[in-house]
Amino acid sequence: MKFGLLLLLPCILLLQSCQDARLPLLSSGATIVAFGDSLTAGVGASKGADYPAQLADISQLTVINAGISGETTAKGRQRLPSVLAKHSPELLILLEGGNDFLRNRPIAETRNNLASMIELAQSQGITVLLIAVPQKSLFLTPSPIYAELAQEYQLVLLEETLSELLGSPSQKSDTIHLNDSGYRALAEAINHYIGRA
């Protein structure tokens, strides 16, 4: 019994640390960069209904849509420095990894690429909000690498949100993309963590 509790304790602490994490307050004129692949670009959404556009509407902050459909984390790692240099955001929303999973890229490679992007942002004083992507499986469960990264870098993590939305037919435009309603729900979930000074 004691051994079982000892095994369970790290899991509880890991979950608790991610839930307790809070984003620093953003300035009133803050710029947010939403960085990722087709789920950030807004594939499946009507014009202006991608999640960055809906987040801008809800939060009344500047949200840059820096999503490129089909991008892998390796490409994202190469692209991120120029995006950060161009926009100087206070907050980076990182939603990437789905194309790695679909193309069966090594999980360690995906994790390393995400870690490099997080480290780059943090080295510039940019806060990172991480969104977990479902792993390739019969069940839409988030890949564990996101919780590991959130723990390691002390990030706010939206762990279940995307998996739950993609598991709901009413929120999807196809098997791997959201519709307007799904992107709205994602934007609202993100906005929950954003505080303004």
Q: Would you count the extended β strands for me?
A: 5
- Coarse structural class: alpha/beta
Beta-strand content = 5-15%
| Major sheet attributes | 5 strands, parallel
Main-sheet strand order equals 2-1-3-4-5
Overview of the structural elements:
- The chain has 197 residues and is α/β, with parallel strands linked by helices.
- It is 49% helix and 13% strand.
- Strands 2-1-3-4-5 form a five-stranded parallel sheet, with helices on both faces.
- It has helices at 2-20, 38-41, 51-59, 73-87, 98-102, 107-123, 144-153, 161-166, 180-191; strands at residues 31-36, 62-67, 91-95, 127-131, 156-158.
In short:
This protein is α/β, with parallel strands linked by helices and 197 residues long. The protein is built from nine helices and five strands; from the N terminus they run αβααβαβααβαβαα.
